[in-house]
Amino acid sequence: MTPCHAVEILLTRPADPSELRYVRSSRLAVNADRTRLMAVQHAPSPGAALHLLRRRLDTHLPLDALSTHYPDQHGQVLLNVALDRTAGRALRRDAAARRQRPGDVLRQHVTIALAREKERRARRLTERLTPLLTDHTPEEVLAGAAALLLGRQGHCPPAAP
User: Fold this and answer.
1) For the segment 29-61, what is each residue's pLDDT rounded down to a tens digit?
2) Which residues, in sequence order, are CB contacts of 10 under 8 Å at separation 6+?
3) Contact at 8 Å (CB) between 6 and 68?
4) Which residues contact 102 (CB under 8 A, 6 or more apart)?
5) Residue 67: beta bridge partners?
6) What 8-state DSSP symbol labels residue 61?
7) What's the gap between Cα 89 and its chain centre?
8) CA neighbor of 27 nearest in space, from 45, 53, 48, 1
9) What is the pLDDT of residue 17?
10) Mind giving me the DSSP string for 27-48?
11) pLDDT of 155 strictly over 90
């Protein structure tokens, strides 16, 4: 029996109604703003699942990237992107100069970009929390954040004593 793989599909823009009709007939789940979809694909491997879905959907939807939804045993997800000719040429040139495979060079670029974004977000959070600590204790800030997060998950905050 061929295994199933959960795939997340990112679109370059919201899907229009005619594209959504195709999506519904393909049994894909669509998010509220119509820019992300989920699919389950039968394939021998996660990489094959991404490849099959891209081939099947490329002419029907404005695909940006496909990724495996669940990390593998090493905590990694696979990413399938289609580069335009200019970007593909630049990537192959960069890979040749480094004597590496294009996929490995792309992985390095993506990893660096994700680390930068994570650092930027952490810095932004620190900048926003610092002023709170001038008027509130760390415990109050933590309790307020916990109440906010629990409220977003549909939990009721604990009653005041």
Assistant:
1) 888 899 999 999 999 999 999 999 999 898 889
2) 35, 36, 63, 64, 65, 66, 67
3) yes
4) 88, 91, 92, 94, 95
5) 8, 79
6) S
7) 25
8) 53
9) 85
10) T-EE-TTSSEEEEEEE-SSHHH
11) no
CA distance 153 to 53: 32
The tokens for 11 are: 């679109």
Phi-psi region of 154 (alpha: psi -120 to 50; beta: other; left: phi over 0): left
- pTM for the model stands at 0.67
Take residue 132 and report the two structure tokens written for it.
Answer: 């709170």
User: Dihedrals φ, ψ of 155, to 5°?
Assistant: -85, 145
Q: Identify the DSSP state of 69.
A: S
What is the rounded average pLDDT for all residues in the chain?
89
55, 21 Cβ separation under 8 angstroms: no
> Both tokens of residue 63?
């695909």
Nearest to 57 by CA among 17, 14, 103, 10: 10
Q: In terms of Cα–Cα distance, which of 3, 80, 2, 19 is closest to 28?
A: 19
Say which DSSP state 72 is in. -
| Contact by Cβ (8 Å): 51, 60 | no
User: Locate tokens 């696979």: which residue?
Assistant: 78
* Lowest-pLDDT range of 50-59, 104-113, 127-136, 152-161: 152-161
**Distance (Å, rounded) from C-alpha 66 to C-alpha 121?**
24
Write down the residue that tokens 């495979």 correspond to. Answer: 101
